[in-house]
């Protein structure tokens, strides 16, 4: 009897019985299927044969064969290629600029000797609680001469108040002994920030960088407001235009009989918009773990 009880205890907590384990497993299986099945359907429909897509009504889970006519049609047209380049540029450049500005601002607000830190912090908190609105923001962007410019997708959203608060809290928790030892060795604020603080902040930088990158990659409303030139449209705006408006997209170079159905082209655009983030995330995930371990050994 004692052995049976001991086997069901893990760290002093009794383990549930087999019926409860099976029930939990089934619940997890249902939730996983709810997430995975639509994603599989998107990929399968993008590579399914034209005849099978038309017979199934636009959604295929198990394609009879694989063809990449939808992807060939998209990239042959040139619209998606241009939009993909714009999205990559905005995401990479915007993330780097946002991280730089946010880290400098957060580090300045975290320093105890910064006299203007409290008023600036109140301004940051105020901007997080109260949005300026679409019309005032549009007038500011217009006054800055950023209309029909790719920088209109970066500059207005360069700094996030929430991310600045998170970075400030992390910098305040760093041991003062580290920065004080750097000052004793003759390092100034910028040198301490670049060579001491930044290497210890890899974990939080990875998280905030991912926040900024996903926000830039998924943004389409700024392009809808500020860009009239379709050549500057990011991939998400192209996706919205051709999926919601059900506009035919692609190149007729494949021939009328080989031109994919609209459902196949829409799913292919979805895949193209999702894959870059899925490819980047595993590398960041490993960097998260490394950064957490690096920041854990301190004091």
From TrEMBL:
The chain crosses the membrane at residues 21-43, 83-108, 120-138, 150-171, 192-217, 263-284. GO terms for cellular component: plasma membrane. It is a multi-pass membrane protein. Keywords: Cell membrane, Membrane, Sugar transport, Transmembrane, Transmembrane helix, Transport. GO terms for biological process: transmembrane transport. It is found in: Cell membrane. InterPro entries: MetI-like (IPR000515), MetI-like_sf (IPR035906). The keyword Aminoacyl-tRNA synthetase does not apply. Residues 84-280 form the ABC transmembrane type-1 domain. It comes from the Bacteria. Belongs to the binding-protein-dependent transport system permease family. PANTHER family: ABC TRANSPORTER PERMEASE PROTEIN MG189-RELATED-RELATED, POLYGALACTURONAN_RHAMNOGALACTURONAN TRANSPORT SYSTEM PERMEASE PROTEIN YTCP. This is Multiple sugar transport system permease protein/putative aldouronate transport system permease protein. It comes from Kribbella caucasensis.
């Amino acid at each position: 009897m004692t052995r049976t009880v001991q086997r069901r205890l893990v760290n002093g907590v009794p383990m549930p019985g087999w019926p409860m384990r099976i029930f939990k497993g089934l619940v997890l299986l249902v939730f996983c299927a709810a997430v995975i099945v639509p994603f599989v359907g998107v990929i399968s429909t993008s590579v399914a044969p034209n005849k099978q897509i038309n017979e199934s009504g636009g959604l295929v889970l198990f394609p009879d064969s694989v063809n990449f006519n939808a992807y060939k049609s998209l990239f042959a047209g040139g619209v998606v290629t241009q939009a993909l380049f714009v999205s990559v540029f905005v995401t990479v450049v915007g993330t780097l600029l946002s991280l730089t500005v946010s880290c400098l601002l957060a580090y300045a607000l975290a320093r105890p000797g910064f006299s203007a830190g409290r008023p600036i912090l109140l301004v940051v908190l105020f901007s997080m609680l109260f949005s300026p609105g679409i019309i005032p923001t549009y007038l500011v962007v217009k006054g800055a001469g950023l209309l029909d410019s790719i920088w209109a997708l970066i500059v207005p959203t360069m700094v996030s108040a929430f991310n600045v608060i998170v970075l400030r809290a992390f910098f305040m928790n760093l041991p003062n002994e580290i920065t004080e030892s750097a000052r004793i060795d003759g390092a100034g604020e910028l040198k301490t920030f670049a060579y001491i603080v930044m290497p210890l902040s890899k974990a939080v930088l990875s998280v905030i960088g991912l926040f900024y990158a996903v926000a830039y990659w998924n943004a389409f409303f700024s392009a809808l407001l500020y860009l009239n030139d379709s050549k500057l449209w990011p991939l998400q705006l192209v996706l919205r235009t051709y999926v919601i408006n059900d506009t035919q997209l692609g190149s007729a170079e494949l021939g009328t009989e080989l031109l994919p159905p609209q459902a196949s082209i829409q799913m292919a655009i979805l895949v193209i918009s999702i894959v870059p983030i899925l490819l980047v995330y595993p590398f960041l995930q490993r960097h998260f773990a490394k950064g957490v371990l690096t920041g854990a050994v301190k004091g």
